[in-house]
Amino acid sequence: MSRDDILSVENLAMRFGGIVAVNDLSFTARRGQITALIGPNGAGKTTVFNCITGFYKPSAGTIRLRNNDTEMRLEKLNDFRISKIAKVARTFQNIRLFPGMTALENLMVAQHNTLMRASGFTFLGLFGVPSYRAAEKAAIELARYWLDQIGLLARADDAAGELPYGDQRRLEIARAMCTAPALLCLDEPAAGLNARESAALSELLLKIRAEHGTSILLIEHDMSVVMEISDHIVVLDYGVKIADGSPQAIRDNPKVIAAYLGVDDDEVEAVEAELGL
Amino acid sequence: MDYFAQQLINGIVLGSIYGLIAIGYTMVYGIVGMINFAHGDIFMIGGFIALITFLILVSIGLTIVPVILLIVLLVSMAVTALYGWTIERIAYRPLRHSFRLAPMLSAIGMSFVLTNYSQVAQGARVKPVPPIITGGYTLHEGAEGFVVRLSNVQIIVVITTIVLLGIFTWLVAKTRLGRDMRACEQDQTMASLLGVDVDRTISMTFVIGAALAAVAGMMYLLYYGLVDFFMGFVAGIKAFTAAVLGGIGSLPGAMLGGLLIGLIETLWAAYFSTEYKDVAAFSILIVVLIFLPTGLLGRPEVEKV
Amino acid sequence: MATTAPATLARGPDVAFIFKKALISGLVALVLFSLMIGVRTEAGPEGQLIYWTRFGDLAAMVGVVFGGSIVIELLRYWWGPVDTIRIIPPSTTKALAVARRGIAPVLLIFTFLVPVIFYDQRYILDLGILVLTYVMLGWGLNVVVGLAGLLDLGYVAFYAVGAYSYALLATNFGLSFWICLPLAGILAAFFGVLLGFPVLRLRGDYLAIVTLAFGEIIRLVIINWQSLTGGPNGISGIPRPSFFGIPLTPGDDGLATKLGIAFSPTHRIVFLFYLILALALLTNWVTIRLRRLPIGRAWEALREDEVACRALGINTTTTKLTAFATGAMFAGFAGSFFATRQGFISPESFTFHESALVLAIVVLGGMGSQLGVALAALTMIGGFELFRGLEQYRMLVFGAAMVLLMIWRPRGLIGHRAPTVFLRHEKVISAELVEDARA
Q1: How many angstroms separate the first and last alpha carbons of chain C?
Q2: Residue C375: which residues within 8 A CB-CB, separation 6 or more?
Q3: CATH code at B198?
Q4: Which of C56, C50, C58, C12 is nearest to C32 (CA)?
Q5: Rounded CA gap, A115 and A141, in Å?
Q6: Residue to substitute from A49, A102, A168, A187, interface C, most C β-carbons within 10 A
Q7: Radius of gyration of chain C from its Cα atoms, rounded to whole angstroms
């Protein structure tokens, strides 16, 4: 694993009973870059995500995360520690906000660990010590910043469940960013967004990369988004990596087009057109 | 050894009764995904119906025991099944798309209603009946004069359980209703799109569960010779424990769990202490859920993220 | 139930349909009640079972069901579908939401004045103490069920632990109430952690049953561990609380003498009233503070989506444990108050019914709402008092009320949620968006 890599997945395998969802997968994600993980439905992309973020324990393989010169083995950390210690944040394919809490509260919950320390694990906070109040204020400011970034400042006090779909997607990204992640894993962030919203999303992700130096790992079906913002693309099919390279290389890879798009000619043409081939 | 053999027999008989109740829990949980908290009380109602039917039959001069037993069995199954149907209709069906907590709380309320309905209608005192089936076989006579006995009641309880279990397994595996039930268990929306009458299937689940609980109630009456309005609560928790131990959703699991709970309880009472036998049963529930949450025969669950 | 098509509105009620439905309901009732109500069994003088018939009662019950069915159908026809909006219109709900800022202080002031207004009415004071005890228990359980969304059916176990801790410490070691109170709370919280640690990973409905089993285990151990707990006979002669060391007795060192006023047994009642009021308000204050701290937000987030919590680096196990322990601690406080007030405790006071009653208070109140829980405790305990004469029907009505409540208003009196922090305006969040406890 080189210094420039933030994440290195080696020989990852995940089996559910007899079903092999991911097999012998190796790839790396560069620090400060956007890496996209693409592939047809059922290729095992979300499974890879769940292994990286600790929701599944991989059947085999290693997942290394390198941050500030310390290397961590993610497959050995379990659930909440991956976010807390390894600083990997994620979003979900089917949005998982806290629907009954306001947008602002969602972002406050994301800063739980920082605020817990500031509140002296509740005991100091209970009596409202000034240092905690200062920390809470800072947390609100951070939340305000991210709400502003995603254009939801005006709706800060509305319940997350009331927000339109596209706003919820962005809010989930903002929430993940409030954990100050080193690696941000996004599971189909553009799913269900219209063209304008997709463009705004691309802009947001590029901004996150540029201004915060956060590395991003992205699962996405929307090729316009993938091709526009990715620095590097990994293609998965039936749990196996079939290609790995720059967007241009992937775009020109006939194997990817055949495997990824299936064999139906009409369909290939339609998607090729979309890709601008 | 003889003592142990006797306890084994007693445990299996008790376990059969728990198993019959546990099937009702497991079926309802499998299809509707709720713990039918009132199911223990359905068992209690079944016991009362059996008792009253028996009294009436005896008082009108019927003396042929097999005929009495058959009539009592059929009447208590039928009437208790109607209780099950009515409860589902009143207390659970309107809540099918309500908040997650609602059906559970409604079931707790229903359990109170049934317990106290029975208390108001039949009084708070324990209702004893004289032994209906007497006699039995001496299996082995030990050196110290300890006798291992298998009574006729015990034989009847076990045989009835096996026969009903057979019928029931056939019902689920081979009939249209069974297929509908399995379909609803997998995916209710899809099942209804494919022409399964989901409401009717759920109703039937409650009806069958209640009928089996009624059999358990009757067997309890035959075996222990008494019923009371409060017997459903503890029996209900134990049967639920049995369902969880066997793997909730699994029918053979419910029976297996029932037998295990019956055995554990009996052996605990025989070798350790009678006072703490319920504590033992409840502790098993906790231990099983912690170390074996899918039960012995249950399917492991993969968390969907 | 089958639908009455709105089309019938134009033609008037569909008499044939309603009649048919009532007939079926009556028939079902006839079968259900024929044996259970039509025949009454009882152990006769020599132990043998006798029975007699009660066809009059049976006919009456079937008639009630038949008539009731017609009435319900007619109501349904005139009212349209019965739902929340019919029972408590949204305008009322909104008004409640707005008014609750006003209601709470008024209620609080009134509660403070109760001993002054009703000084001579022992019955009212006792009832007030009872209501406040349940308010406190409700607020305590609200932390577990309402905020953290963990369905706890064995809450009474911690109440029992608190009560027995005080009773045993006071009778065996002569410790005063004021020393025992925190000890009882700590012990109860300890039991909460003890139970919580292994079981909190469980899915919601399993958790409910395990807590129920735990409650029963505690009760059974209390019954059977005779040498320690006195078994079913309980513990009597539990010391009464003192006014911070000064006993409330008629003697020379009693509070009355020291203050130079005439002794009256009412003093102690009034003191107990303010004591439980203070304890309840402490519970309330702590809960309100906790909600605005990261731990409280994590509880609510846990109720909303546990998976998301884990993805945000929240240790869900310790978060659940703290909720469990906090709730248990308040139950422990309430338990030791109960013991000192009664002077006698036995396992009978700690049955599953108590857990269910407190849970019903939390649910009726609208999970998560402090004011709602207080109002619900008042309604429930008050309602129970109304049925005092009909002892055996009490639980019947309680059970039926729980079912009806779930059908008509599963979110309770005040179901919406107030945010814990806001940038510009505090907007209440409607009940439909808020998740409830996992079941």
Answers
A1: 24
A2: C365, C413, C414
A3: 1.10.3470
A4: C58
A5: 13
A6: A102
A7: 25
Q: Domain of residue B260: give its range.
A: 2-291
Please state, in angstroms and rounded to a whole number, the distance separating the CA atoms of residues B296 and B270: 25
Contact B116 C220 (CB under 8 A): no
Tell me the C-alpha distance between B303 and B305, whole Å.
6
pLDDT tens-digit series, residues C41-91: 888 777 778 888 888 989 999 999 999 988 888 887 777 655 555 555 666
Q: C203 by DSSP, 3-state: which?
A: coil
Secondary element (H or E) of residue B122: helix B102-122
Count of beta carbons in the 10 Å neighbourhood of residue C90: 10
Question: Which pLDDT does position A157 carry in this prediction?
Answer: 86
> Which pLDDT tens digit goes with each residue over C94-113?
666 666 667 777 888 888 87
Q: Kind of pairing, strands A60-67 and A70-73?
A: antiparallel
Asked if A16's CB is within 8 angstroms of B305's CB, the reply is no
Flag whether residue A116 sits within 8 Å of chain C, measured between CB atoms.
yes
d(CA A223, CA A169) in angstroms, rounded, equals 18
Residue whose entry in the numeric block shows the structure tokens 């005092």: C388
User: Is B128 inside a domain boundary?
Assistant: yes
Domain contains B14: yes
A58 touches chain C (CB under 8 A): no
Nearest to B109 among C40, C223, C403 (CB): C403
Q: In chain B, how many domains are there? A: 1
Average pLDDT over residues C416-426: 78
- B227 within domain boundaries: yes
**Backbone phi, then psi, for A23, in 5-degree steps?**
-135, 120
- How far apart, in whole angstroms, are the C-alpha atoms of residue A154 and residue C422? 12
Which chains pack against C, by 3+ Cβ pairs within 8 A?
A, B
Which residues are CB-contacts of C194 (< 8 A; sequence separation ≥ 6)? Answer: none
Q: For residue B297, is it within any domain?
A: no
Please tell me the distance from the alpha carbon of residue B201 to that of residue B171, in angstroms, as a whole number. Answer: 13
